[in-house]
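<backbone_tokenisation>
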Amino acid sequence: MTPYSAERVEPVVVAGMAAEGMERDAADPLSWYSAAGLPYSYSLDPPDHETEPAELEIIERVAGRALSCAVGLHIFVSDLAGRPVLGRMAQRVAERAEGWVLVEFRARPSEDVLGYLENAGRCIRVDDYVYLDAPAMAAWYAHPDFHVLK
């Protein structure tokens, strides 16, 4: 999620796709393919599209400003090798768009991992998932336990 409008964020997302070596599908501009042929896409939605108002309020309070756009990055196959790309793109978009990344875990992480993320940047704990700012997302991506859920 980012404080910027979809119009301002979309070029950042497109640059992130291109930086990963992806090519846009000429028939569907939201669809992209990696060099390995894996299908990716993105969506730009209002911040409350999948986030409860109370949760959005917490994120905005920590961020210190209103959020205007939720960016969804997707891979359309269950290929584990393609998922780290999502982590890199999410970190890159969060950094360039001053945003937050929703991270869902396979299992609730240890307090050590959560502390590590909180020390690296800003981390908002919500039940069994977190929202990370760009520095915390970079730390998560570099962590040995890093994973992305589809």
